[in-house]
Every structure is written in C-alpha cells, then in structure tokens.
Sequence to fold (562 residues):
Amino acid sequence: MNLIQFMGAVELGLLYGLVAMGVWLSFRILDFPDLTVDGSFPLGAAVCAILIVSGVDPWVATFCAILAGMLAGLTTAWISVRWNILHLLASILTMTALYSINLRIMGRPNIALLGEKTIFSALEDPALRSLFTMPFAMFILSGVVLVLLYRFLMSEKGLAIRATGANSRMAKAQGVAVNRRILFGISLSNGLVALAGALFAQSQGFADVTMGVGTIIVGLAAVIVGEAIFNPRIILTALIACVFGSIFYRLAIAMALNAGFLGLQASDLQLVTAVIVGIAMVTPKLRAKILDFASSGR
Amino acid sequence: MIRMTDLHVTFNRGTAMEKKALRGVTLDIKKGDFVCVIGGNGAGKTTLLNALCGDVFPEKGKISIDNKDVTNLSTWQRAPYVARVFQDPMAGTCANLTIEENLALAMGRGAKRTFKMALNKEHRDKFRAQLSRLKLGLENRLQDPIGMLSGGQRQAVSLVMAVLRPMKIIALDEHTAALDPKTAAFILELTHEIVEEHYLTTLMVTHSMHQALELGNRTLMLHEGRVVFDVEGEKRRGLKVSDLLDLFHQASGLELDDDSLLLS
Fold:
C-alpha cells in the first residue's frame, strides 16, 4: 500500500466514522438495530447532489441532506414505536422505500458533481492542495461532529436517551417520554449517516443510487473493530472508538484488496467486509471458549 | 390525597387465560399515610401498585391525585407525582450508567429536560451529601457504573433517587424481597427514616405480615382483587400476625393456606 492509498483509506475512514457514530447511537445506545442507514446514506448524497447541481449553496445542500436523513429515521422509528412493529422490519420497510425515493430525487441513477461548487471547493486552491488536505478536512469535520454529539449525550436530554436504551422501564418511571426519545435518537442517527452521504458525494464527486449497499455493515464493522481495540467504558472513548474503528477497518480493507497473493479485486469489497465483521463478532466468543477449555483442562 | 375509586383490571380479557386482577378496589390514601398492602400471590397487590404508577390501565374506575384525574396518564406523565422503587434492584437503576448519572436522571423526574449538562459540581455535591447518609462509601464512587453495586446497595440508591424530587406518593413494590435478611432489614430501616424525614405518603406492597404491621400506620389486605380488610390507628396497634389471619378468615370466610403469606 502506498501513501496515496493510505491517505485515501484514512479519509474514507474518517467519513465513515460519521456512519459509525450513527450506527453506534442506534445499536448500542438505543438498542434499536436500524437498517435504514442503507437508504439514508444515498439519500443524503442524492439530496445534496441534486441541490448542488440546481445551484444551491453546498452548505445549505448539506444541511438539507441532514434533514432528509432525519426524516427517514423518524419514519422508521414512528412505524416501530407507533404501530409496534419490530425495529428491524420497520427499518427494512423504510430502506426499501428509500431506494425508489432516491431515484425520484435524483431523477436518474447517478449525478456527477465534477466541476460543481462543493464545500470542499476552497481546498482545491493549488497552494493548499496536497495529499493531506482532504483527510485533514475530514478529520476536522468528524471531530466537530464527535464533540457536538458527546456534548449532547452528556446533557439532560442525552442522558434521557441513554436511559431509554439501557432500561426503558426505569426511564419511564423517571418521567422520560421513551417513545419520543426513540423517535429523536433514530432521527439523529440517520441525520449523521445522511451527512456522511452528502460529504461522500461532494468529496468523491458523484452520487449514485446503489452507493448505500452495505452501509450498515460498514458502520457496524467500524463499531465492532473500535470496541475490540479500545474496549470503551465511557461515552467519549466509545465515540473515539467509532472513528478509529472506522479508520482501522478501512486500512484493513485496503490491505486485503492490495495483497496480491489473495487475488481480490475491488468488487470483492462487500465479501471482505462481511468476513471481517464475521471474524470480529466470532473472536470474543471463540476466545472465551478457548479460555474456558484451558481452565477446565487443568 | 390519593383516591382510587372502583378499580377493575382484567388481563387477557376474552381469552381462556382471562384473569381478573382487581375487582372493584376503592382506596383513599391521606397525605402522610403509610399504607402496607399484603395478600397472597395473585391477590392483586402488584396490579394495584402498577395501576397507581400507570403501568396498567383500569378498564373501569378512576384514580386521582390531589383532585387531579390521572386515570389516563401514562407512566412518564405520572412521574412528577409518583416515585417508585422496584422489587428487582436491576429494574430501578440503569446498570451501565454511573451512580451519578442515575441520580442525575432521577433529579429530572417530572421536570423539563434541557440541553444543559446533566451533571455539574452543584449536583455532585448534593449527591455526595445524600449518599453519605447511607454509610456505604458510595459518595466516593460517583463515577462507578451502578451495575457494579450489590442488590442492596442498588436498592439504597433507588430510595435516595426517589426522594431527590418532590412527589405526592412513593410506591414501594416489595423492594426488600430480592435481598438477604440482613440487607432487607437495612433497607427497611432506611425506608422508615426517609419516609419520616420527608413526611412522605407511602404505598408499600409486601409479602411479609410482620413488615405490614411494624411499618406504617395502616395495613390493607387484598384477596382475589378485593380489599378484604383495612385497619389503621387504634385498631391496628397491638395486632399480631395471628390476628391478621383471623381477620382474613372473618372477612373472606376462608382459611388462609397460602404459604407465601406465612413466610414472615
């Protein structure tokens, strides 16, 4: 792996760190496995791209993408909470619908943003342009989001969301409107993912209707890899673990695809991802089993 | 004053599993009353408490707190009026939140939750002061996850959490049943202290006839979803467990054979 590939992996890792934080919020904090993200990632990209090519300011377009993502999350949470539908099924419903909606929004399967003004346009100045510019910009963006999200989770409202996911019966007894907390939490989660989609479209120069496939697994992979490395006990480390887990995961993917002897090609990405996540999920159980075996063998 | 009028609760209505948990319970709890509710398994004690807290809605009847009709309010909407300690120490606290975060959550019971930091120095000082009275050393462990505490310690913290904010009534749901005898005695003593100190109105469900006579000023027995007797004041003073069994016999015409009630 050369430096260009390395920095590219870091940049993507930081971008998908946003997805990881969103997935962590739904899976770990709210205990609400949410697959909507496979639809809200391209939704963010689609909304942002169509607005940019229509001449809207890229910052406004990015903001609209976040709102669209939040609306998608709200839909899933509402179906689940209001009609008592299993969260996984509710999210699959929304995700499926979003495929058509994204096509409608874009009016075609993909939109190119080459030459359009994006939030990264200012960085194209030759004086600034280097291998490190985009990774650094992504670092700042995900850093800001991380700090804001951390601050929110430590607030009175944030604490109520954390209690909702951890022990909803207790949360209710403490006066927390748990259903509203779920609606808001899942909206926020999908808002983050849509933001990642919008940034992806602007940094990679396109939006495509199929770009969301596997987003949930990539996000989950980052969360699990981060947890395996950092073993986080507090919220701040958990958030940092999401971002670094995402970077490490990207590097692992880049290495796997670059290892010539494996004979893998770019299209094997999803397979490699699934294998990495599978290994990460099985390892702790396998380790426990081996330790168990070793201790009982004495 | 808490007023429950002709409460009826039926589970699994219209099925073979139909169970009439409450069949017309009427109960007035005056301000400052400490009511102990006893009864065998399935007598409706916990259902009565759940109806008060909003976990169960009656199909008939009315509940009002200080003349405000709360019959149709859900659990979280009633939280400003009703504080609760659960039977299961796991249920009343959030295991993976820290001790101080659990307390902070309880500080917000019935108040509007804002974007302000949930914890600050003022809160921590208050929590330390409240926890130090327990003499469990918890005031130095504010940042430990509450899941690291024993069941008894968690129940003690639950009691402290319950009284962080004003309320109209505290509902104790067999809150010592899951503890060993020594810890249970400690929690009961603590309950007594806290109730006296804050002059709380209390509804305590218990399995133990001894507890039901020792604590509080009023004893209520439920049987098959009805109040079979309700004693307080002079009449209650000097009553023994055997007297309770007689009272039950007179009121229901049945011999009490439920072992769980005799375990006291």
Q: What stands out?
A: The mean pLDDT of chain B is 89. Strands of chain B lie at 2-11, 19-29, 34-38, 60-65, 68-69, 82-85, 169-173, 202-205, 218-223, 226-232. Chain B touches chain A at residues 53, 74-77, 79-80, 84, 86, 90-97, 101, 104-106, 108-111, 113-119, 145, 161 (CB under 8 Å).
